[in-house]
Amino acid sequence: MRAFARSALFVALCLCVSCERNAAQGWPNKPIRFIAPFAAGGPADTIGRLIGYRLSNDLGQQVIVENRPGAGGNIGTAAVAKSAPDGYTALVTTSAFAVNVTLSTASGYDAEKDFIPTALIASQPNAIIVSATLPAQNLGDLLTWAKTAKPGFATPGSGTTPHLTAEHLFRSVAKLDMTPIHFKGAAPAITAIIGAQPPVGSAAVSTALPHIQSGKLRALAVSSAKRIAALPDVPTLAEAGVPGIEDYTWIGLFLPAGTPPAIVKRFNDAVNRALQDPETRAQLERQAYQPVGGTPQEFKDYVKAEIAKWGKVVREANIQAE
């Protein structure tokens, strides 16, 4: 009986492997959807479209980016978690994915069990920005002015990494009485800062960059360890007098749990090929992104570390989802 059971188990395992291989060999034979769980114009949307275009050529099927914003990214993310694990629906999202594990008590999904981290696409620092109408020329000026002005600060949403960077800087370190004003995405937050409603905010560099270059916004500091090529004259937070804050907004690709490993590998390989393409790299770098890439296991380890890091920040600052 034991020999029979072992044989049956072996046959079942072989069938599973064969089914997975066949599924991967036939994939893809129809368009692929990338769900971006934030509004159009934000990092997940813009990078999702760039990488989606490259993957369309690589995989031979159209990649369609669908924006499904709401609940800090949870609505679109939950939709992918519930989708069929067949490689035709993927999540392209930001570092908010790691934050929401702690921030949201009823997200509708389990970040660590319902997804396969597939590829880390790119990352960039956040920037502390002000309206060009504000006299503050550097971070010190801003912090001094804010002590008496007590302005609000704009964010692309509660629990996003730009929000947490500003929360850490303004309220935890500088001990300022500044209230976060959350918008539904990066684009409306940037528009509000340009119009000085409020005149201060935090955003991933790429969303603010065109307006910094046009003179409508002024960048006072970036949250990276080193200055970035896109803004060589803008100091890091440490250089501006506030050490100990190093934060990034990253963009990654996730597949639903249960997706065959062969399909996960094909996705990962395609993303890595795209990131080696000189034109793709140039487009990312023009938007202040650093191409990353790597293996699914490396991305899984990174996501785990980010969940632990941001969980600590959320708990210590007692940040609540809106």
How would you characterize the overall build of this protein?
There is one protein chain. This protein is of the alpha/beta class. It has helices spanning 2-25, 43-59, 74-81, 96-103, 139-149, 161-173, 186-194, 205-214, 261-276, 278-286, 296-317, and strands at 32-36, 63-67, 89-94, 115-131, 153-155, 180-182, 200-204, 217-222, 248-256, 290-291. It folds into two domains: 2-123 and 250-317, 3-Layer(aba) Sandwich (D-Maltodextrin-Binding Protein, domain 2), CATH 3.40.190; 125-222, Periplasmic binding protein-like II (D-Maltodextrin-Binding Protein, domain 2). The chain contains eleven helices and ten strands. The strands form two sheets. Strands 1, 2, 3, 4, 7, 8, 9 and 10 form an eight-stranded mixed β-sheet that branches. A two-stranded parallel ribbon has the order 5-6.
Summary tags:
322 residues; alpha/beta; D-Maltodextrin-Binding Protein, domain 2; two-stranded parallel sheet; 19% strand; globular
Task: Explain the layout of strands and helices.
Layout lengths: L1 H24 L6 E5 L6 H17 L3 E5 L6 H8 L7 E6 L1 H8 L11 E17 L7 H11 L3 E3 L5 H13 L6 E3 L3 H9 L5 E5 H10 L2 E6 L25 E9 L4 H16 L1 H9 L3 E2 L4 H22 L5
Parallel strand pairs: 1-2, 1-3, 5-6
Antiparallel strand pairs: 3-9, 4-7, 4-8, 4-9, 4-10
Helix pairs in contact: 1-9, 2-9, 4-11, 6-11
Distance between the termini: 58 Å
What do we call the CATH topology of the largest domain?
D-Maltodextrin-Binding Protein, domain 2
**Quaternary structure state of the chains depicted:** single chain
CATH architecture of the largest domain: 3-Layer(aba) Sandwich
Major sheet: 8 strands, mixed
Whole-angstrom Rg: 21 Å
What is the total domain count?
Answer: 2
**DSSP strand content:** 15-25%
Tell me the helix content: 40-55%
Low-confidence stretches: none
> Which structural class fits the helix and strand makeup?
alpha/beta
The H/E string reads HEHEHEHEHEHEHEHEEHHEH
Count of DSSP H/I helices: 11
What is the number of strand segments?
Answer: 10
From the spread of the alpha carbons, the general shape counts as globular
Average pLDDT, all residues: 91
Please identify which CATH superfamily of the largest domain we are dealing with. Answer: Bordetella uptake gene, domain 1
CATH class of the largest domain: Alpha Beta
